Amino acid sequence: MSANGLNRHARTGRLARKLAVAGTGAAVLALPLIGATTASAAPAAATTTTTAATTTYPNNLDGWIRESLAIMAQHGIPGTYDGIHRNIMRESSGNPYAINNWDINAVNGTPSKGLLQVIDPTFQAYHVPGTSWDPYDPVANITAACNYAADRYGSMDNVFSAY
Fold it and tell me: pTM (2 decimals)?
């Protein structure tokens, strides 16, 4: 104990409480001056940085559909997971490198490509910003095809056969 009958921590606590009553700012500034070792003061001019959360999708059919749906939502393109999945399974069985070399499009020189079997002119016309320009890119293919289906049929959910 010190000479006045109070130990150092009691005096420090009492002083900090008095300063807190006077104003939080004064207490924060005074804490380092009174030798507080257990309290931490926030910087007077705290800066905050905001980091955008980045969603990571698996590199598989489920991830491609989910990433596509997120991009579609940003661009107001309708469609559901089930509608997209159903059409992918019918068109390509989930193979992003599928190509149709035997239908009328192929005979005319523009074979259907990718998960949702899109021909190059349709892919280019309905490409969605923020996706690759590669028609074999799964997310770009799904998103462009859904954009086309939305324009033509209202949604990919309304497509039940070759489109």
Answer: 0.68
3-state secondary structure of 158: helix
* Tokens standing for residue 138: 């799964």
- Cα–Cα distance between 30 and 16 in angstroms, integer? 8
Residue pair 146/84 in contact (Cβ under 8 Å)? The answer is yes
Q: What is the pLDDT of residues 128-139, one digit of tens each?
A: 999 999 999 999
Q: Residue 52, Cα to own-chain centre: how many angstroms?
A: 8
Q: Report the pLDDT value the prediction gives residue 31, as an integer from 0 to 100.
A: 41
For residues 20 and 11, give the distance between their C-alpha atoms in angstroms, rounded to a whole number: 14
Torsion, Cα 59 94 126 53, to 10 degrees, reads -20
Amino acid identity of residue 40, one-letter, is: S
